[in-house]
Structure formats: structure tokens, C-alpha cells
Amino acid sequence: MRQRWLTITLLLATTAYCIAEEITLPTYYPSPRGVYQELRSTGNTILAFPAGNVGIGMASQPDSTITLEVQGGPIKATDGMIIATPPANPATSSNGQLWLIRNLLVPAAPVVDIDSGLRIRQGNNKTVSIAAESGAPTSPLRLTRTGTNLGIVLVPLNDPRASKARIMTASGVRALKRRFNFFGQLFGIGSGGAVVRRMPDGTVGKVGNIPGEGDFGLGYDSDNDLLYAVDGNYVGADGENFGPPLERFDPQTGTSVTVGRLHYADGTPVWVSDPGMAYDPNTGTMYLASAADGFYPRVTLFRVDTTTAVATRVADIPAGGNSNTGLAFDPFTNTMYAMVCSSGLYKIDPATWTSTFLMAPPSASATGLAYNYEKGLLYVSDSGAGLTKTTMQPVINPETGQPVVNPETGEVLLEPGPSSTSTLYTLDPKTGETTLVFPSGGIGGAESEGLDFR
User: Kind of pairing, strands 172-179 and 127-133?
Assistant: First the structure.
């Protein structure tokens, strides 16, 4: 009997000893339902097979229509792509990161180049927006936003607006099309170098100063959110306008840095007077237009390297002479516009550098020029008296107090009414129609010699 109890005691002791040790099982089948603090796999892992759903960071079961659902953070592949859906652009991002901005509204009317909300941090450390099309999308790559199906616009790899994101289609590899960065803000610079900004709601405020005297050209680099300016009244030690400084201005901080004095590739300084500037986001190129030195009836166009201040002459506009020139660029039609104060508005084709005269200047001292991408209109600033427009109003019968109607046509008769003046106005390059923009006095109560829109 004592021997039997001894045997039982030894068996219990051996069992306790085995339980205290770590046991490795070659095959483990967890309970169909369980909660685990940590579960590791050193081999192949198959989840939700042949059906089911996987949720990460979920407090409850994932959506039954979604195979993999993640909440509470982005999905990251080390040295690869990061996917996130924040409400706004993150404060910091990494190359290869991709995110979708939430809560963006889709325009009611069909648009070809709208903001998809999709952002990509490219290898050149730039965040680009991806373009989408609404209405009846032709792209096979689709995105649903606020209940609307959008097509992500695809372009050939050699397209100037091709992003670094690629996708394989039935027609071969295509790139996601990057969208221009639009903010709806108009910048102007006055004769003392004061930089002012007009917001989409019409409010105006000063954002800083750029060193110089006056007759500035102003260009906005929409890819890097930077303004560049050249002082047309610069006078060097030799008493001439040779080699004015190229200034780089950050509208977020209000600080200005001198890139260098404008010069040709061989080091010769560039003669500049009454300049205009414009940026081509298709190619990432800054252009400068300068009136000739007074001996030639032309305006000269330069391509400017914004990192070295090297200017390369590309063409001449056969107009003007020593006259203020505004410059603007329409990236959608790849068209450059030049407003030569002494002669008028010109359209320039960057592919051939041929210029076409469009119309006479609407005002006597039209100097600044900018293109509004959203409305397809030009902003024009006048450094002089501005543009005056008279409002036509109905002729009123003094006896009845009612408008007088032409008995033959049934139309209300009109007569000149009050006149208004503004040094800032819009110009339709197709029709020549102008509209005054208030407040008067440039875009902030003072003349604006240089303009640009972003």
C-alpha cells in the first residue's frame, strides 16, 4: 500500500515539474475563439481562409464586406509605401508615403482635373496631389469619395505631369497624373518691396518685404511654395541695371534670401528693366521677361535657374521697347501671356516661342500679370490710375418711376451710371472682357507692380 502511494506521489511531482517547463509543440491548433496577448509565427501564416475578415486595431468585428480593415494608424512597409487616411497633410512625411485626405468635397459639375485627395511623397522630397476626373470616368483606376466615383487620371511615363507612382494597365505601364497645387491666393509686390497676399475670401494682408527699389517682377514656384522676385530698378556700382539680385521669398515665414545676381552662363551680368516673371509647373521652369535696353523694339524672355541665378535667353517678343512687362502662365493649355504696357497682351507658345498679339492694354499702366487657373482669367495690376468702368443702368421714367422700354424691341433702355476705378482687375484673354476687383489700389491699398497667383 505504501509503495502504491509512493508511486502516485512521484507521478504528481513529475507532472508538476513538466508543467513548469516551456513546451514547444510542432503543430498547434488554437481554440476557434480566444484572446491572446501575443501570437508569433515563424513560418507561413494564413488568415481568414477560405473566407472571413481580418481586423487590426478593431474594437469589434470588421466590416463583413472588407477582407482586411485597419483602424487607428497608417499601414507601413519598411523602406516602401506608407498608406494613411488623415484629415489633412501630415506635419512630416517620408518618401514613398501615400495618403488620402478625408472630407474633401467633389465638385457638382464634371471636372477633368480635380483634387482626388490622394497624396504621394515622391523621391525628390516633394508632396504631389493626384488628379482625378468626375462625371463619367474613363480611367480604369477608381476612387470613391463622398459617395462619388472618381477616375484617377493616368498619363504616359514621359508626360510632364507624370508622378512617380506607376500602375500596370492593359495598354502598358502608366503613371498617376499629378495635379497642380492650387491655393486660390494672389500675391502682389509694391514699389517698396512689400509683399501682400489676397486670400480667396477677399481679405488682404502683408506677408513680408523683399529688398529692392521697385518695378519688381514676381513669380510663384507652386511646387515648392516659394516666391521669386527681381528688382527692375536695381542700379549697380557701374550705374547700370546689370545683374540685379534674384530674391527667394518664403510666404510662410516672410523671410527673403538672395540667390545671386542674374547672370549668363559665362558669368556676364544680365541687363534687366521693368521685368515680369512666371512659373511653368509642367516643367518646373521659372521665366523672366525684361524690357529691352531702349535701343531695340522688343521684350526679351529668359529661362531662370532659381538655384544659381543663371539666365538663359529663349526668345524675343517683337513689341514694346523700354516698357513694363507682366508675365503669366496657363499650365492647362501650356500658354504663356505677356502684357507689354506700351503695346498690349501677347500669347506665347513655349514649344516654338512664337508670339501672337491679342489686344491692346485695357489700362494705361498695366504692369503686373497673373493667371487664375480656377477661372481661366488673367489678373492685371495697374501701377498708375487704374481701370475705370462705368456701370450702365436702366433709364427711369420720372413720372412713373419705372424703367423705360423700347416699344419696338421690348428691351429696357440703358444709360451711363456711376463710374468705379480699381488698379486690380481681371481680363478674359479670349473675349477681352474686364471686371474690376476691389479693394482699389493693387491688392492691398498700394500699387502692385508684380503679381502671381497660386
Answer: antiparallel
CA atoms of 445 and 356, how far apart (whole Å): 33
- 48-67 burial, b at 16+ Cβ within 10 Å, e below that, comes to eeeeebebeeeeeebeeeee
Q: Which three cell numbers stand for residue 369?
A: 500679370
Euclidean distance between CA atoms 363 and 131, whole angstroms: 37
Cβ atoms within 10 Å, residue 417: 11
Predicted pLDDT of residue 16: 45
Alpha carbon distance 302, 244 (integer Å): 14
Q: What is the largest CA-CA distance in the chain?
A: 135
CA-CA-CA-CA torsion sign (297, 387, 185, 372): negative
Set of cell numbers at residue 285: 521652369
Q: Is 11 helix (H, G, I), strand (E, B) or coil?
A: helix
Helix (H) or strand (E) holding 17: helix 2-20
Q: Which of 32-46, 126-140, 161-175, 436-450 has the weakest average pLDDT?
A: 436-450
Residue-wise pLDDT tens digits, 20-39: 455 565 665 666 666 777 77
Would you place residue 242 in the very low, low, confident or very high pLDDT band (cuts 50, 70, 90)? confident
